[in-house]
Model the fold of this input.
Amino acid sequence: MWDYTDKVKEHFLNPRNVGEIEDADAVGEVGSLACGDALKLFIKLDEKKERIVDAKFQTFGCGSAIASSSALTEMVKGKTLDEALQVTNQEIADFLGGLPEEKMHCSVMGQEALEAAIAKYRGVDAPAHGHGHDHVENEGEIVCKCFGLTDGFLKKVIAANKLHTAEQVTHFTKAGGACGGCIPKIKEIIAEVMGEEKKAAASKPAAKLTNLKKMQLIQEVLENEVRPQLWADGGDLELVDIDGSNVQVAFRKACAGCASSGYTAKFVEQKLRELVAPDINVQEVQG
Done:
């Protein structure tokens, strides 16, 4: 049983803006009944064609898909098309008070439909997601044949949501969730995206960090880059203290008392040196 927030339940039981707009300025369709989820988004612009005055949807899917679509239509009203394009799948999930990770693909589908609708209105190719009505064959190689998802789409979702495991990619996109044959390729794509991010970070000129900024960065890296990888193996860590360049951490769950905790501490240290500062030292403490 999924743990849904009250706001998800509200938008599922009483969805906003269900239906279609007959004279819509833009329509975007993603997904398919064969994949289990499908969404059709309608957008109406004001007389000056500057702002979205109405948005409606039709969807076939689970409660999270309905709630995400309802949230999206509420979020984009009053925005310009460029402002609407800035809405991320994470913001859709946040609007609902969060979604179970296994249901994050529903928020991604809403973002896809919005991009497809605006691309059609502007007369340009829709982003290649690899499934549904708006796939452009030459814009990516199909990785997940079961759901027809391209490498370009997967790279975009992985980078935008900082995904580090194939399981997370499945939760956000469904890729690998059927036959599982594409899991090795998904892992390759994750490694490729992480490698590109490392190169980009290395190419940036080093800026002098204040103590406060260094502490903030350490906390962000531990939360967004390190802990998700430990979670994937049933482990976790807790930040105990930061004293200059010395970072004290305590390992939890499967990592607590593990014979390999020394290697894990080195991994944490390497990640912090990579993304924060080269002089950081990580110390494991008990408790």
